[in-house]
Design brief:
The structure is a homodimer of 313-residue chains.
Chain A: H1 5-15, E1 24-25, H2 28-34, E2 37-42, H3 52-61, H4 67-70, E3 72-75, H5 79-91, E4 95-100, H6 105-113, E5 117-121, H7 125-139, E6 142-143, H8 150-166, E7 172-176, H9 181-193, E8 198-204, H10 209-216, H11 240-247, E9 248-254, H12 256-270, H13 276-287, E10 296-301
Parallel strand pairs in A: 2-10, 3-4, 3-6, 4-5, 7-8, 7-10, 8-9
Antiparallel strand pairs in A: 1-2
Helix pairs in contact in A: 1-8, 3-5, 3-8, 5-6, 8-9, 9-11, 12-13
Chain lengths: 313, 313
Amino acid sequence: MHPDLNYHRSVLEKISPHIHRTPVLTSSTLNAEFNAEFFFKAEHLQRMGAFKMRGATHAILQLPADAVEKGVCTHSSGNHGQAVALAARTLGIPCSVIVPKNAPKSKVEAMEGYGAKLIYCEATQADREATAADFQDRTGAYFIHPSNDEDVIWGQGTAALELMEDVHDLDILLVAVGGGGLLAGTCLAAVAMNPSIDIYAGEPELADDAKRSLQAGEIIPARASTTVADGLRTGLGSVNFPVIKKHVRDILTVSDPQIIEATRWTWERMKQVIEPSAGVPLAVVRAYPELFQHKRVGIILCGGNTDLSHLPF
Amino acid sequence: MHPDLNYHRSVLEKISPHIHRTPVLTSSTLNAEFNAEFFFKAEHLQRMGAFKMRGATHAILQLPADAVEKGVCTHSSGNHGQAVALAARTLGIPCSVIVPKNAPKSKVEAMEGYGAKLIYCEATQADREATAADFQDRTGAYFIHPSNDEDVIWGQGTAALELMEDVHDLDILLVAVGGGGLLAGTCLAAVAMNPSIDIYAGEPELADDAKRSLQAGEIIPARASTTVADGLRTGLGSVNFPVIKKHVRDILTVSDPQIIEATRWTWERMKQVIEPSAGVPLAVVRAYPELFQHKRVGIILCGGNTDLSHLPF
């Protein structure tokens, strides 16, 4: 995957009718505190509440014409499952999601609300994958991977593209890393817009496989993690890792208490409901303030889907 | 007080350097559900988190030059106290706030953070007023009333003015009513922009003095209320009531559970942290849907200051 601004723009043009162009938020309090300028791309205000809508929409738009009959499928009980469900409905494609039996009721209901057919499996990664493979074999449905798919990655990159179209002369982009799709897409789009921009990623200490992968120069698989940033528990993949290795300047880790504090601050002061994964970049700013001083910093607030009955604070 | 668009525009021009021009938010889900178009003026994103910043700023700007020495004062532990404190600091005027001894710590800290001097009094309306009167006598400080003051009312009206500048052809404006400052200001600005617009107010059933006042044709004092919409527990005043009587089409009441449900929906679906008072208009929409069908409806989200450790849901 190599950067080409025209291609990024064509991806954005293709998905634009089906997604929101999210606003950019600022906080003069925060700018004063850190002697820097922060620009928050509000992907928690994206359709279905996360940037994942971009990649899912783009991947489905790239499918052959027979996707209308064969449909798409994925296995995720989180934002990606909802994104594939809503993007498929928006584009008139049948959608099935393989869901572990213990998936939270709210997420299951959201996917059903978006018209997806649910197929239950055991709550293990192995059974998820086996059930998905079996379903694909039987139906010919196209599988949409949450992060390790070129078309998904190009789609996720459009958040950074819009941000850099709206806010000029950014010095730094700071993004959370989980499966690596958003980070790789951000790298490709940002470098296409401005080859000298610095790209940093934030990661929970309790799920620091991306940091260790970058240090080792090869993918270190994610361990089971209980980090409150539940969207960032997954590991990198063969498609996105080379991009990340090439373009990311550093991956900075933060503790769960730091993530919770930054998330709460965003609710309290910016009045924005974000999920803990989206609090990771601000937690990084608080933990490594010297990196951002006097800089213009773009931050992607990746999502806002959180259970109000079980707040982390 | 009579409407004159030029005057409203001059008020907005005067306060503009000191306030945010807040964005207008929409929800396609909500529009589809009610077969209407809703435009939310996001005053929870205003400086200090509420529309009150507008009135306080305007009132202080209208004071004589000796306000720089004599200072301003008010008695409020809520948004108005914070607004006067921040507006005064912004404009370089000393500020004192009379605060009941039992005021929540978070609010007291916010006012101190904005540089106000705090004067504690007993937790009764009588002692508040006596302490404030005594303070004024001793210092000559100018008292800024939260809602029954022409300059405050003109200031609050600028939220509706901005909304109607940004969104054309509104059929209805829907605003919560507590002390009546926002509602009266909205009436004056809205009618100046469009004399045929319909203005409705929403009020908690547990604090329905404005509804009863409108029915009686005279001010019925507010009773002590425990409504979750704590910003709306106060009563109307002699300056704002005639404006409200002349221009408001109806005042519609909603129960506390309806207010809590609408507030929660706004957090969950629009990802916006609003205080319960700001959930009242949406609760009205849900309770009286036929009124809004096929209409373009402007709603003011009046504030977002709420204690995350004590959510109403």
